[in-house]
Write a structure and sequence with these properties.
about 40% helix, alpha/beta, eight-stranded parallel beta barrel, 12 strands
Length: about 250
């Protein structure tokens, strides 16, 4: 069963979505991320992906108070990313209620620090962020492209014990143009035991069904919900019908 993970991206305390990671292409969908999270929980979701876009841009956590509000007013399992660059940032995320954190840039720029966090907190709490543009890993809020190619980058960390990877195809993100299924298939063929979380481009229930058929373990989606392309009740009904034993 594919794991369904709605997303909340935060700028200036508001729930927003960007297009292709461009901060100049921003749409505001809610002035209360916590209320949005409560709505997801009311529709039966158990997991939530929260991104501090202010933090990603500023290179330190900014919206930890909103993270805390979400975790204190829901029972959702929250994974949090954006701006985690130091031990203090990481501890702040966990202290604010995050069950897991997504680490991307540091895994590229300071692999020793990432490995230290992986060893200290364990593979169940550390998600490797692998955001891809033109085949290269992107860092620092998607403002820079590194020289790291996706599959060799993943191999280094899978060999070191990473089990959870969030992979976003940046050219798809926020476009409602459909997910990069071929890319995710390549990753799963290379690392079949990986818990891969696909992100970017989901536009409909049909896209989620296709990812499910492709054997992708999990999917993050946001804009399709906010734009009314995916109806939460229909999504929940599909999951209930497809996997009744899991409900």
């Amino acid at each position: 069963m594919i794991e369904l993970i709605p997303a909340i991206d935060i700028i200036n305390g508001q729930c927003v979505r960007l297009t292709k990671g461009d901060y100049d292409q921003k749409t505001i969908y809610s002035h209360s991320p916590a209320k949005m999270a409560q709505d997801f929980e009311a529709h039966g979701f158990k997991r939530l992906h929260v991104v501090d876009l202010d933090g990603a841009k500023s290179k330190h956590i900014v919206n930890d108070a909103i993270l805390k509000e979400i975790t204190e007013t829901t029972s959702l399992t929250v994974d949090f990313g954006g701006g985690i660059k130091t031990d203090e940032d990481l501890q702040k995320a966990f202290d604010s209620g995050a069950s897991m954190v997504t680490i991307g840039s540091i895994a590229v720029t300071c692999p020793e620090l990432f490995m230290g966090w992986l060893e200290k907190y364990g593979a169940d709490r550390i998600i490797l962020g692998a955001d891809v543009r033109h085949g290269k890993i992107s860092i620092n809020g998607w403002k820079e492209d590194s020289t790291e190619d996706l599959l060799p980058f993943l191999k280094k960390y899978v060999d070191a014990g990473v089990r959870n990877v969030l992979c976003t195809e940046i050219s798809k993100d926020g476009t409602l143009a459909g997910p990069a299924i071929d890319l995710y298939r390549q990753v799963m063929e290379a690392y079949p035991n990986l818990h891969l979380i696909a992100s970017g481009g989901v536009s409909s229930l049909k896209d989620i069904e296709e990812l499910d058929r492709a054997g992708i373990p999990a999917v993050v989606f946001g804009k399709a919900i906010y734009e009314g392309k995916i109806n939460l009740k229909e999504l929940w009904d599909w999951q209930s019908a497809s996997y009744p034993a899991s409900m």
